[in-house]
Predict the structure of A-type potassium channel modulatory protein DPP6.
Amino acid sequence: MVKWATNTKVAVNWLSRAQNVSILTLCDATTGVCTKKHEDESEAWLHRQNEEPLFSRDGRKFFFVRAIPQGGQGKFYHITVSSSQPNSSNDNIQSITSGDWDVTKILSYDEKRNKIYFLSTEDLPRRRHLYSASTVGSFNRQCLSCDLVGNCTYFSASFSHSADFFLLKCEGPGVPMVTVHNTTDQKKLFDLETNEHIRKAINDRQMPQVEYRQIKIEDYSLPAQILKPATFSDTTHYPLLLVVDGAPGSQSVAEKFAVTWETVLVSSHGAMVLKFDGRGSGFQGTKLLHEVRRRLGLLEDRDQLLAVRTMLKEQYIDRTRVAVFGQNYGGYLSTYILPAKGENQGQMFTCGSALSPITDFKLEGQQFLIIHATADEKIHFQHTAELITQLIKAKANYSLQIYPDESHYFHGERLQRHLYGAIVNFFAECFRVQDKPPTAPAREEEEEED
């Protein structure tokens, strides 16, 4: 991380190769001399090291996020202020926020009102609200977005240069909208974007029901999100798709609005989609995050499989139609999950798909779709080529969808439609109830011999 603090001073964050020690310095651009402002270390690894500090106008005071111990759940990320003292080489460091929740982003510092504005998970890990906190005295904190917009619990925001006004973006669970507010009393000044056309389109369609639940794993109660068809009935049997992310520090369960290929699979093909934040996921304390230290791929797949087994206990899940999908690190996990055994040592998953996977694995008869762009600069196509070599040797049943000369991020609406269409069609075919061949009529008793 490198950021200009003033016209002559630049903040530089140095990180060890093992990513377990960081040093935040303030460097003079004219002389090249750097002064250490803060040092942090971890027995595992340091998370969120690319976030920029927020400086006062004179550069003598700055705010940054660091992990602070908060009891049994480990450390949570909170705002710390560092103030230079006159005639002293030591800085005064104070924590402005605390609690078993994370500050996810520092947005603005209002020097004339002595307030800092930020987003946090204080309400719930799957939510984001806008808060202010005093930078003097007892650091009183106030939620600015709570109950401000109906059917919205996930926000982002940006402030004017003077911090007199802020732009508030509702990102879910309702249709996103953008409003402009007065910072002093949070009064709405006007709507910038209401997305009425999207709202009307949503109202005219049968959108999935969204359910949240907690799943117990050892000492943790971890969040799951389930997408159900709008016409859901517990007397009907539905196929189940597990969508895996699982990268350390990631979050799959969030109250954000989204219309994706998963929405199409649920609404148009009657499937159910499961997402689960297991050990190693973010925004639930560093104890949970660091559980996967030196054990990548060992705990995450167990947790995802436990979430699936929990769902298979429900009478409305069709155990013969269960699938898994993952992308990037999730693709890595999905390849390990796919061969898992269910009851009576039978296959738990009917089929699976991985987008830009990173590993090799064993298949035992399931359908498997591999998708990769040949010019992927993040996860090289070599991973898929090596995987295919092993699949051929194992005589595995797989399909390959490549995108020539395309990058990792699949830019372009037409390309994305083709990609998501391929994924939906694959799982729709996997979940299709096969027509049973007509049974032979019972053989009538042989006619009496003439």
Remarks:
- Confidence is low (pLDDT under 50) at residues 435-450.
- Helices lie at 196-203, 261-269, 286-289, 300-312, 329-337, 382-393, 413-431.
- The CA atoms of residues 20 and 45 lie 4 Å apart.
